[in-house]
Amino acid sequence: MMATGAWALPGAAGAAGAARAAGTGVRDWARRAWALSPVLAVIALLLVPSGGGAEGGTGGTGTIADAASGLLVLICLVRVVRSGARPLSRAAAVVIGLPVLGICLAAITSNDPAASLPGVARYVQVFVLVPAAVLLMIRDRRDFAVVAWALVGLALLQGAVGVTQYLTGTGASYQGEDIRAVGTFGPTDVMGMATVVSYGLVIVTGIALGSGRGRARTAALVCAGLLFVPLVLSFSRGAWIATVLTVAIQLVLSGLRRAARVALAAGALAVVLVGGFGVGSAMVKERVASITQVAGAPDQSVTDRYTMWAAAGEMWRSDPLTGVGLKGFPAYRDSHASLALSSGSDTAGAGAAFHRQPLLSPHNMYLLVLSEQGLLGLLALVGSWAALLVGAVRRAGLVAIGVLSWQVIDFFYADIGGPSTVLMSVVLGLAAWWSLAEVKRA
Fold it and tell me: Is 90 within 8 Å of 372 (Cβ atoms)?
């Protein structure tokens, strides 16, 4: 097992790092924040309440954060042209650009190429252009730290809004009460806040496990405790599962003894917050118990998900290599789904009226890609993610390993769609820098 220092967040640990930070001070961080302002703007604008829905698949475009991500790509392109240098290594270009092959092939062979064009733009945006732009914007370890802590800051703010929603009964509707913490994402994107908070939690876990004793570790541990509460109050089973498994991976990689100690501390924290202070205790216990009932006595949401998974599988079997085409799942859903599928899911609360939201995706990224892009598209996309994860493990980055592992796990019961999708692009770019950038990290 590697020494703890090898897993540290860039610029966050060690006496030498502390001395350099004291020397450069606030002005250095301000200069870096200005240089990274196109990336930080995308993160900050996710605090703006969104009026759009959280359509699955390739839907959910048109938010102000999406517009900022387009500006980020443009600014990055101008910088690359002005510098005249090769922006990416061959390996990085292949890994980042690999999904384009499956995307374009699926669009060309689509049963309705014109309808697939918006899907091409969306997939290239979230899986290629924005991650590449973030990778190129980050110059060194300290830039990495600025972006990572900005993500944590967003998580804390969204989490604070979510906790307030729970306490004041102004959240999204859950079991007849407006108590579900959704942040500024609204009831049509109930996974938005849970995703943001989960990113923040795995990032601070990586910082705490990779840093020596000092302010960075203390701040990370405090943030972890604060983020635990809104994650619980999101009532998102998928986010809970992905976060628990990801933190377990980070703990094991940092050392088995430490993993055991932290697991005990986390268990005690959960008992105090849920059992002692009653943080949504009855509903949380019921929600946790429902995770084990997905096979024996599933609720309607789980039944809908199983039905859509089966429909995606049927679509893939009809076009195994290239799929039915981007944005094709909604068009072919009814002809492949069984009668067990409901007409949609009910959304209300958090300042929105009752709305029947249609089910336009299988809520499984792998099955969505398999049905719309076929086996070739799935291999290209998953191959890119696998390469990033391998690079993060080889270069010993607990933060990068954490966010990539969380996303890979979460995609088993979630897909792209909604305002939070663009944040996933930023996170992929952050992890890609650690995995692929040709810079010295010591």
Answer: no
pLDDT digits (tens, 9 = 90+) for 160-213: 999 999 999 998 888 778 889 999 998 888 899 999 999 999 999 999 988 777
Residue 70 CA to residue 88 CA, distance in Å, equals: 19
- What is the distance in angstroms between the CA of the first residue and the CA of the last residue of the chain? 18
* Beta strand pairing call for 172-174 and 177-180: antiparallel
Residue spans per domain, the chain? 39-299+389-436
pTM of the model: 0.88
How many other C-beta atoms are found inside a 10 Å radius of the C-beta of residue 107? 24
Q: Looking at this protein, which amino acid is placed at residue 384? A: S
Q: Count of CB atoms within 10 A of residue 268's CB?
A: 10
| HEC readout, 258-319 | HHHHHHHHHHHHHHHHHHHCCCCHHHHHHHHHHHCCCCCCCCHHHHHHHHHHHHHHHHHHHC
Alpha-carbon distance of 378 to 347, in angstroms, equals 31
**Token digits for 220?**
């990370």
The rounded mean pLDDT for the chain is 84
- Report residue 96: phi and psi, to 5°: -70, -40
Sheet holding 172-174, edge to edge: 177-180, 172-174, 345-349, 352-357
Number of continuous H segments (helices) and E segments (strands) in the chain: 17, 4
